[in-house]
Amino acid sequence: MGYRREAHAAIGGVRVRRIRRVLWVVLVLNIAVAAAKLIWGYVSGSIAMQADGYHSMFDGASNIVGLIGLGLASRPADRGHPYGHSKYETHASAAIGAMLALAAYAVGSTAIERLMTGGVPPRVDAIAFTVMLVTLAVNVGVTTYERWVGKRLNSDILLADAKHTGSDVLVSLGVIGGLIAVRLGYPVADPLIALAVAGAIAYAAWGIFKQAGVTLSDAARIPPDDIGRAACEVPGVLGCHDVRTRGSDAEVYVDLHIQVAPEMTVEDGHEVAEEVERAICRRFSQVVDVIVHLEPLDDYQIEKTIAEQEAASE
User: Fold this and answer.
1) Rounded to two decimals, what is the model's pTM?
2) Which domains does the chain have, with CATH numbers?
C-alpha cells in the first residue's frame, strides 16, 4: 500500500519555477551591489568596503549554486532515485553555508592582517556613504522578499540564501559604522568592524549547516504522536506504532504500522489502510507520500505496542 499526493508533481513544478525566478532576480541585484562596493572600496582604500564587496560576490555565487542545485532537485523520480531528487536543494543550501563560512574567513583574516600591519587609513567621503546606504537598502529589500517567498514555498535554498543576504546587511551596517568612526579620527575602526562582522557571518553559516543537517540526516519531521492520532481517528484502526517521518520542510515522507481486528478481511483492511494514508495527507499539508503496513491486533502486536510506549516514556 502507499499513497502519494496527486497534485504534488504539478505543485512542485510551479514551486520550482517561482524559486528559480527569485534566484535570477537576486543574482542580478547581488552582482550590481558587489560591483559598487568593490569599485569604491578600492578607490577609497577601505578594507571593510572591499570585504563587503567580496561578500556580496559570494552572494552572487551562492545564487548560481542555488540555480544549479534547483535544476537537479526538480528532476522527477526515477529508478535510481525513487524518492526523487529534492535533497539536491538541501545540498545546494549546504554549499551556500560553505560559501558563507569562506566569506567569514576572508573578512576575518584580512581584518587581522590590517590590525597587525597597519596601513593607510581609508578615504571617507559622501560617495562612500552613498554607495553603502544604497546597497544596504537593496540588500534589506532582497533578504526580506527572499525570506517571505522561502517561507511560503518551504524552500531550503531560498531561506539559506536569505540568511546569506541578511548577513550582508550586517556587514554593510558594520562598514557604515566603521566609516563614521574613521571620519571621526579612529582609523582602526575599519578592520575592527570587519572582524566583528566576520563572527556574525560565521554564525549565519552555522545556522544554515544546522538546518541542512536536519534534512540530510533524515531527522523526524512530524511528531509520531500527531501522526498516530490522525491514523487512529479512521474507523477500523485499533492501534498505531512504528511511525517514521523524513524529508524536507516542503516534502515529508511517512510510513507507519496500523493494527486492525484480526477477523477483518484483506479487502476491508486494505480500504482502512488507504483511508489512513489519505487522512494523513489531508491533515498535514507538507506530507507528500504515505505508506501504511497493516497488522492484526493480536497478543504479539499488543506486546509490541506496549514495548514501544514504554521505550518512548524513558
Assistant:
1) 0.64
2) 3-216 (1.20.1510.10), 224-313 (3.30.70.1350)
